Amino acid sequence: MWNMKSISKKMKNIMIRRITASLVILGLIFDMEGVNGVGLLKVTAATSYPSEAEPGDSCSVDQNTQFAFYAYQNQAANEVDNFNGSGTAVSGAGQIFQVTAGNSFTFPGSVDGISDVEKWSKIKSKSAEGWTRVSYIPEYSIQVIYNPNFQGGASIEDTEVFFSDEPFQLRGGEDTFERDGYILKGWSEEASGGVDYSLGGYYIASSADSSVNFFAVWERIPHVEVTYRPNGGTGSEINKDERCETQMGGDFKAFDLLGSADFTRTGYDLTGWKLTSSGEEFDLGDECVISANEDGPLVFDAIWTRKPEIALTVQYRPNGGDGDTITQTMTVPLSETDGSAQITLLDKADFEKSEHNLKGWSEGSSKYDLGATYSFTPEEDEISKTITFDAVWVEKKTGNVDIKIKTPVYVGAEVKYDIEKNSDGEVTVEFRKKDGNDSSYSKTVLMEGGKYIARAKLKETDDYKADEDTEEFEISYLDKPVNPYTYKEVVNSTGTVTDLTIVPVGGYTISTSPDSSFGASVLYSAAKKAGGSIFKTRRG
User: Fold this and answer.
1) If you count Cβ atoms within 10 Å of the first and of the last residue's Cβ in the chain, which end, N or C, has fewer?
2) Gap between the Cα atoms of 396 and 469, Å rounded
3) DSSP assignment of 143-184
4) What are the residue ranges in the chain where pLDDT is below 70?
5) What is the structure's pLDDT at 21?
6) Quick check: 429 and 442 in contact, CB under 8 A?
7) Fold annotation for 311-395
8) Hey, how many other C-beta atoms are within 10 angstroms of the C-beta on 9?
9) Quick one: pLDDT at residue 54?
10) 275 touches 283 (CB < 8 A)
11) CATH dotted code for 401-476
């Protein structure tokens, strides 16, 4: 390990070196001189000495130059700072080459105590007594391999450039590895070792190293294995490796229970979890605190709370009437007060039963009016229910109708009758001949003598049954009519009858004499004799 203050100073020097190298390209050299700890820049005209050079590269000089090669940054800085224009040999590993103006210099691959140089990097230059000393140190590269140190992870390889005795920075955690359930703590030089280097820390490599391996050091995040079971609902068990947060100085750890799950149960809501080992109950999403050394598995059963409702199927049966059973399905809320439920029964149905009225519904021995409110209280665990109602029929009252024919009835005359009934039902009156071949009834009476049957039909109403009544009667010819005719007279202003129209009774025609034609009426004037004959229209 190394002193971080020293490392900071070295990194500052590296930064300065990079700046100097960049400016040399422009043909200028900026030397750093410390004044009260503050670096000042001094511009010196000089040969364009390369900021970097590989062994075998050449450099032409137009002034007397000492190319000085050193092993370390500090050594190079000290030697140049103490330069007095002489070509004194350096202390420690390194070597100085003097080149007079107008000549060229070829960079070596090795010098005293420094071998296998990949590249030389310019550090500093200084002029004194007609000479300019330019200092270089060797620059090396190394392959850095980061091993994830867990099965399934892929290694990361970097190429780092460094100088002897100077550190390079290792990778941090954000651009390296991720491992579920673990935290990356740092790097180790051994697969099973502890943290040798922190994330983003510094490492000093040897110039002899071509590669270096670092192994990820992991710390297990506090965790516990948890199983969630549907407990009477539908759905598959859920198994989780829950991450925990340490609590109370590390003696306990905590995790959040599931806030929801793909579990379902008809008529119930998922409202929490019950720890089977202790019986402790938790709300959905609650925090569960356990001992730090508890790794599970912990088993939680779903807690189901009945919904404040019931799935209801209601059936209405015709109960001896005509029609199909009516089925209704619904979800009925339960009372928050007593857990009861209410529905409104049908106020009508497409059921029919001859001579009966649908008056209500029955369930067992209980009867309800049409459209009534039906209340019930489900059992504690009852989430669905089927209720069957039967139609309640009430027989209609007996309808009664009587027909009485007003006699006598003569051919051609209107058939008159009286009707008596006990309901407001409509009555239809029809006729047929008693001894005819046609047994069908008609509203029209045949205008001929004979025996007939009159039928009165009373229609069914909401409260009364239908009924009918018949009566026989005879249509006869008028032999000796009491009032054989009627007449209409025309009276003038003096009160004298000037014209008289005689009309016979029904079933007869009239003529002025047996030899004259018979008609519906006879008109007599004052000059004519008021007399004549009437005959039956059809003899019988």
Assistant:
1) N
2) 19
3) EEEEE--STT---EEEEEEEETT-EEEPP-STTS---TTEEE
4) 1-46, 89, 207-208, 446-447, 478-484, 506-507, 512-521, 524-540
5) 38
6) no
7) Immunoglobulin-like (2.60.40)
8) 13
9) 95
10) no
11) 2.60.40
pLDDT at residue 12, as a whole number: 40
The two beta strands, 384-395 and 309-317, are parallel
Q: What distances in angstroms separate CA 172 from CA 11, 180, 185, 233, one per listed residue?
A: 18, 18, 10, 48
Contact of 332 with 312, CB cutoff 8 Å: yes
pLDDT at 489: 79
> Which among 64, 55, 62, 51 has a CA at the least distance from the CA of 25?
51
| DSSP string of 459-512, one letter each residue | PP-SSB--EEEEEEEEEE--SS-SS-EEEEEEE-TTS-EEEEEEEEPTTEEEES
Beta strands (DSSP E) in 80-118 are 94-99, 104-106
**Helix (H) / strand (E) containing 14:** helix 4-24
Quick one: pLDDT at residue 537? 47
Domain with CATH 2.60.40 in the chain: 311-395, 401-476
Strands 533-536, 508-511: pairing is antiparallel
Neighbouring residues of 37: CB distance < 8 A, sequence distance ≥ 6:
none
Q: Is 92 left (phi over 0), alpha (psi -120 to 50) or beta?
A: left
Distance (Å, whole) CA 220 – CA 494: 143
Q: Which residue, 333, 338, 251, 263, is CA-closest to 304? A: 263
pTM across the whole model: 0.45
Phi first, then psi, for residue 77 (nearest 5°) are: -65, -45
Cα–Cα distance for residue pair 149/214, rounded to 1 Å: 9
For residues 7 and 13, what is the distance between their CA atoms, to the nearest angstrom? Answer: 10
How many Å from the N-terminal Cα to the C-terminal Cα in the chain?
Answer: 154
For residue 408, say if its preceding peptide bond is cis, omega within 30 degrees of 0.
yes
- Residue 102 region by backbone torsions, left for phi larger than 0, else alpha for psi between -120 and 50, else beta: left
**Tokens for 64?**
């007397």
Contacts of 387 by beta carbon, 8 Å cutoff, 6+ apart = 312, 313, 314, 315, 363, 374, 376
How far from 361 is each of 319, 331, 358, 387, 461, CA to CA, in Å? 10, 21, 8, 12, 21
Distance of CA 119 to the CA centre of its chain: 66
A 10 A CB-CB count for 472 gives 10
